[in-house]
Amino acid sequence: MVKQFPKDFLWGGATAANQYEGAWNEDGRGPATSDTSRAVDPSERRSMGSEFSTPMTLEKVVAALEDTEGLYPKRWGSDFYHRYKEDVALMAEMGFKTFRMSISWSRIFPKGDELEPNEAGLAFYDKVFDELNKYGIEPLVTLSHYEFPLHLVTAYGGWKNRKVIDFFVRYAETVLNRYKGKVKYWLTFNEINILGMTGYLSGGLLFEDGKLHLQEMYQAVHHQFIASSLATKLAHEIDPNNKVGMMLARMEAYPATCHPDDIMEAIHKDHANLFYSDVQVRGYYPSYMKRFFKENEIELVFEPGDEAILRQYPVDFMSFSYYMSSVTRSPKNQTEEQKATAGNLILGEANPYLEASDWGWQIDPVGLRVTLNKLYDRYQIPLMVVENGLGALDTLENDGAIHDSYRIDYLEKHVQQMYEAIEDGVDLMGYTPWGCIDLVSASTSEMSKRYGFVYVDADDQGHGSFDRYRKDSFFWYKELITSNGASILK
């Protein structure tokens, strides 16, 4: 019997407008938090980038917008705005069944709080969806992916202000109505669980004293929970065919030893990670968070009806990113010699059984199977891997070839573990590897860290033709999709 994935499995790729689209000040788009993300020096590539992972102040934001000498690569991205037809054709050539992308909120509502949308912005996404639909590619659309209208930061203080819920719901209702029949799959907030790391980019939060305030962070998260539930309600009312998912940055943490304290530490890590999906999938705050809030003196403000909104409008499916796993050890058992490894917004002890990428992210394909089983056991709803991949330094040869066997090896091993998870009984909808066409890094704002099947001829300074070149992985992925996985499941 030939081993294959389910016949309706959604193979594809993933991007985000703030890293891929470009045209940051064209056709009425307003400034967004991502436009102030300055590129970090290559020597700091294992860090997360200051604008990405540290509290921002109003002074820094204003300075970035007025800066004419600094490097802000997300402003031009990969120029998808002008090359979407070419890129969609490349996706179709690979055989994509779905394409995960995001809508730039400030392209639809430039300031975020207007009563009427920007027609030019709406028309752009009409053209993109029409192009995708022409090839039979199902759009998977994220409403908020690491960018936020800058006016909502300066005028309202971001998501800590409950008024922003109404602005988001208006934005969601606008695009849900506009693209009815063109888009069926929606995600509300990208990696909602790392607002503590992306408080400014995705939450519009400013902390003038340079410190992250948990009270304001979790209040902002609560407002996003309510906004997501209300958007889910609207999606189902506007088109019963709509399916809405939540999106989590999955951080699988293994206990360092079988010491009971290390086991308990791993449970705490899971609680910190899965709190967000517990709320959005189950529809209520988990009991373990009561102790966390108490010990950290956090008192969330719930408006009347909030609990009912969360319970009545949970998501239809769960999506997540998976790049690596980590190792955790109880503080009681740590020594000065414990090594740390930088990862996708997490720090943890190095796993001696795993190799690491050029950026220090440890490679753990079996961890993906572990994650899929744990999540499905916990929630029993369809799952989707919407980010996974290897960021690496690719070389464009003189003949236009890019030999990225390292990426093929990484992806192949992860896909094989997804198949094993499906055999375990996991309901897995699809797979959209990250940055299917090269784009600017979310954390360090560099182009050098490439994930794609397609090479974009641009460097970290934005120099280059921006022409597209097929990597070896392009042809590997095309064969994988054509065979529905059989090519690597022998």
UniProtKB/TrEMBL annotation:
Region Disordered, residue ranges: 23-51
Entry keyword Hydrolase: yes
Gene Ontology MF terms: 6-phospho-beta-glucosidase activity
Signal peptide: none
Pfam families: Glyco_hydro_1 (PF00232)
EC number assigned by the record: 3.2.1.86
Parts forming coiled coils: none
Organism domain of life: Bacteria
Keywords annotated in UniProt: Glycosidase, Hydrolase
Family of the protein in this entry: Belongs to the glycosyl hydrolase 1 family.
Official protein name in the record: 6-phospho-beta-glucosidase
